[in-house]
């Protein structure tokens, strides 16, 4: 079996930094979710997943290797983090794989245009932007498939943030992890809209990495998840290619609720919803009953992401005045 370091050494040509590196990536919202790892060290998922990237919402990262530093220096949104900050520690652990010598540390400046750790997938854009910045810093000139493989090791959902538009992350079959990467689905859909409904932007209590491990290990219902998720990925891909919005919305909403059902049925239970999240779900269902086609999805947090077509945007914006409207192909 590959160790994470073997895995990385197979992908990168060298470890000699060349210049200050820069990278930018957008967040993505999964329409069919990644929930569970079959192999933790290599971040190999139990199931494939499918997402949409949100242009203009993401992360920009600058990185420089510096042999005079005694440790990594991480600045997040202009604020220098302490060495023992959990965000900085996770980043440094990932950067350990790329050091020229054990004493080569990095100066990292990262800016998020999404609230960090609020269920808006900032780790996805974060690790994708970091890998792009490393690719620039070391001048590796890697193809996107390799960048997606590297980003996966930082955070699973980051494998998808390497691309714009609809993206599929294949779970892969091998133990070495080299076939578990994301690819774009070439199917722009200009009418397709996402609306962000922010319920609570505080950092979540259970990080997704921890939450999915608890679910895998302590939820009897989880057994049913991988098969369902795999079927949903295929069916959602079909719906995208046929631009069948009703099918896509229904499948995506049901997929999200099924994932949350496994979380709730874990012991101790994991419930990311707030009362306002449930209230918003009821509003979405009421709108649908009144003939406005809108669906929701939710990740490891209380916020809702709505899916609808441009023709209904005004009605939906009226019902949810605080909605942030995004047109992924606009
Ligand atoms: C609910 O990619 O954040 O958003 O691989 O442990 O970093 P790690 O987890 P992460 O999990 C995302 C979970 C999700 C669903 C999804 O985006 O597919």
UniProtKB/TrEMBL annotation:
Domain (Mvd1 C-terminal) ranges: 202-319
Record flagged with keyword Transcription regulation: no
One of the protein's GO biological processes: isopentenyl diphosphate biosynthetic process, mevalonate pathway
Domain of life: Bacteria
Span of domain Diphosphomevalonate decarboxylase-like N-terminal: 25-182
Enzyme Commission identifier(s): 4.1.1.33
GO terms under cellular component: cytosol
One Pfam family from the record: MDD_C
GO MF annotation terms: ATP binding; diphosphomevalonate decarboxylase activity
InterPro entries: GHMP_kinase_C_sf (IPR036554), Mev_decarb (IPR005935), Mev_diP_decarb (IPR029765), MVD-like_N (IPR053859), Mvd1_C (IPR041431), Ribosomal_Su5_D2-typ_SF (IPR020568), Ribsml_uS5_D2-typ_fold_subgr (IPR014721)
Keywords, in A-Z order: ATP-binding, Lipid biosynthesis, Lipid metabolism, Lyase, Nucleotide-binding
Family annotation (PANTHER family): DIPHOSPHOMEVALONATE DECARBOXYLASE
Family: Belongs to the diphosphomevalonate decarboxylase family.
NCBIfam families reported in the protein's UniProt record: mevDPdecarb (TIGR01240)
Name by which UniProt lists this protein: diphosphomevalonate decarboxylase
Organism: Hydrogenovibrio marinus
Lineage per the UniProt record: Bacteria, Pseudomonadati, Pseudomonadota, Gammaproteobacteria, Thiotrichales
């Amino acid at each position: 079996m590959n160790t994470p370091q073997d895995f990385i050494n197979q992908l990168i040509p060298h470890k000699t930094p060349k210049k200050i590196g820069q990278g930018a990536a957008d967040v993505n919202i999964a329409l069919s979710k990644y929930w569970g790892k079959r192999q933790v060290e290599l971040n190999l998922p139990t199931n494939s997943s499918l997402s949409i990237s949100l242009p203009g919402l993401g992360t920009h990262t600058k990185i420089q290797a510096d042999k005079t530093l005694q440790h990594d220096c991480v600045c997040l949104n202009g604020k220098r983090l302490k060495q023992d900050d959990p965000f900085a520690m996770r980043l440094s652990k990932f950067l350990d794989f790329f050091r020229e010598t054990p004493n080569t540390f990095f100066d990292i400046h990262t800016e998020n245009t999404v609230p960090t750790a609020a269920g808006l997938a900032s780790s996805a854009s974060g690790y994708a932007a970091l890998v792009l910045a490393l690719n620039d810093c070391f001048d590796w000139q890697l193809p996107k498939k390799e960048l997606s493989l590297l980003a996966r090791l930082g955070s699973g959902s980051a494998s998808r943030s390497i691309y714009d538009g609809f993206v599929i992350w294949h779970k892969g079959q091998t133990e070495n992890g080299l076939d578990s990467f994301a690819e774009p689905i070439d199917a722009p859909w200009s009418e397709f809209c996402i609306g962000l409904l922010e319920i609570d932007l505080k950092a979540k209590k259970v990080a997704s990495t921890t939450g999915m491990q608890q679910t895998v290990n302590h939820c009897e219902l989880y057994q049913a998840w991988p098969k369902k998720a795999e079927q949903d990925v295929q069916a959602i891909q079909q719906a995208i290619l046929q631009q069948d919005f009703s099918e896509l919305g229904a499948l995506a909403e049901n997929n999200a609720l099924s994932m949350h059902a496994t979380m709730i049925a874990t012991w101790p239970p994991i419930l990311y919803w707030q009362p306002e999240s449930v209230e918003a779900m009821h509003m979405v269902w009421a709108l649908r009953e009144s003939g406005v086609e809108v669906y929701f999805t939710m990740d490891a947090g209380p916020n809702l992401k709505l899916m609808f077509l441009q023709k209904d945007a005004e009605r939906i914006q009226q019902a949810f005045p605080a909605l942030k409207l995004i047109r992924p192909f606009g």
